Amino acid sequence: MVRELTCIVCPKGCPLRVELEDGVVKSVTGHTCPRGLQYANDECIHPMRTVTSTVLAKDGRVIPVKTDRTIPKEKMFECMELINATVIELPVTVGQVLLSDILGTGANLVATANADESL
Length: 119
Ligand code: SF4
Known about the structure:
By secondary structure, the chain is of the alpha+beta class.
């Protein structure tokens, strides 16, 4: 079986061609760096994603957030439910951990912007 992917690790977007046999990656072509090779292997065997979203602050502002590492793609929906149910206290600073070890993935949800207490 052959899968054709676009590498999403950087903006170059290299087209990848992955040959799979019995769920095992046999070859990867099209990548122009080792990160693309890793992406192709991960995407075919155990896809991972960084989650980028917003959380609500108690004063009604929305604060941009992201996971500080990738999580299994199959946990993204559950992760978004958790993020949508979260209301945070201000102030927050960039990189501040708002949720730890999301769903046991080892990833934390961190703020990607500063927000002070006053509007
Ligand atoms: S293979 Fe390397 S250069 Fe190409 S898109 Fe992926 S990370 Fe970027």
